[in-house]
């Protein structure tokens, strides 16, 4: 309760900020996207990571105004960078279950795009399997409305939820992000290697773009590239970066 109260106030006081983790094209090594990752600058405790407040924000509904702040800020930053002539990248934003099922997500996304003037094709929404599978018909309607805005849709942490192939076929999705739990030991464990191969195979068959998360070694990157993975994200390449650092990196690559 105490924390809930603090969290609500923190949204109003704008105590949050975003970090950005680059995502690279596996063939060219160019940065094609960044994932926006939320941090809370708590005046008492300092920097707080999302795992310690997102679950509570979800339970209490604070995630709705907070998620709106993330979308507005991510789009505003994209616009600012584009105006400054920074190398263009997609911006991937994490959407929590409650934002998708309960909030009017397409309205929030549309407003953030209109306010910033960013072209929708630069915005990518990361949804999890668990949030999509709750009410499949409603999900298809919601996804179609979002796709109508021309944003792209990813399934985040793929492989950890229900992974129903039926819905993959019916949902208008653009990217699959393979959960980092499978990438961790992809070079050592035959089971994990087989799972990753299967996910890449399914994605190719359905014309989806595949992103490997949590790539931590060169061996993993080389293996995944040989298997046809399209994009990489992970500590081997970049950790989540503060805005300043990201802009330096993008400037050095342009
Ligand atoms: O940044 P870090 O790896 O600590 O993120 C931990 C978790 O928090 C991840 O599962 C990530 O998806 C989630 N997360 C990070 N930023 C956001 C956000 O803006 N909104 C939501 N809903 N989840 C986020
Ligand atoms: O659930 P989601 O995929 O949104 O989680 C993103 C989280 O994964 C971020 O908190 C980010 O810090 C973390 N992350 C990104 N790359 C790596 C990596 O290579 N290794 C590990 N352990 N975590 C990573
Ligand atoms: Mn994510
Ligand atoms: Na993920």
TrEMBL record:
> What top-level branch of life does the organism fall under?
Bacteria
Locate the EAL domain: which residues?
1-254
Coiled coil regions in record: none
Which protein is depicted? Sensor diguanylate cyclase/phosphodiesterase, S-box-containing
State the organism of origin. Citrifermentans bemidjiense (strain ATCC BAA-1014 / DSM 16622 / JCM 12645 / Bem)
State the covered range within the intact protein. Answer: 472 to 725 of 742
């Amino acid at each position: 309760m105490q924390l809930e109260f603090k969290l609500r106030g923190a949204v109003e006081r704008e105590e949050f900020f975003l970090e950005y983790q680059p995502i690279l094209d596996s063939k060219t090594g160019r940065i094609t996207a960044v994932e926006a990752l939320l941090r809370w600058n708590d005046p008492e405790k300092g920097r707080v990571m999302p795992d310690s407040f997102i679950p509570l924000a979800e339970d209490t509904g604070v995630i709705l105004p907070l998620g709106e702040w993330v979308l507005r800020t991510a789009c505003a930053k994209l616009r600012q960078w584009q105006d400054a002539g920074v190398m263009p990248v997609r911006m991937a934003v994490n959407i929590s279950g409650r934002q998708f099922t309960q909030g009017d997500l397409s309205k929030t996304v549309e407003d953030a795009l209109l306010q910033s003037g960013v072209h929708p094709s630069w915005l990518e929404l990361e949804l999890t399997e668990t949030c999509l599978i709750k009410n499949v018909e409603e999900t298809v309607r919601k996804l179609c409305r979002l796709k109508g805005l021309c944003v792209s849709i990813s399934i985040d942490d793929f492989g950890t939820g229900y992974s129903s192939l039926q819905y993959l076929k019916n949902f208008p999705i653009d990217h699959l992000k393979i959960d980092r739990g499978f990438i961790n030991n992809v070079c050592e464990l035959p089971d994990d290697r087989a799972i990753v191969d299967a996910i890449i195979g399914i994605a190719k068959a359905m014309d989806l773009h595949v992103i490997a998360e949590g790539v931590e070694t060169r061996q993993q990157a080389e293996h995944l590239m040989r298997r046809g993975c399209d994009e990489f994200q992970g500590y081997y390449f970049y950790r989540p970066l503060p805005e300043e650092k990201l802009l330096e990196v993008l400037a050095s690559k342009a």
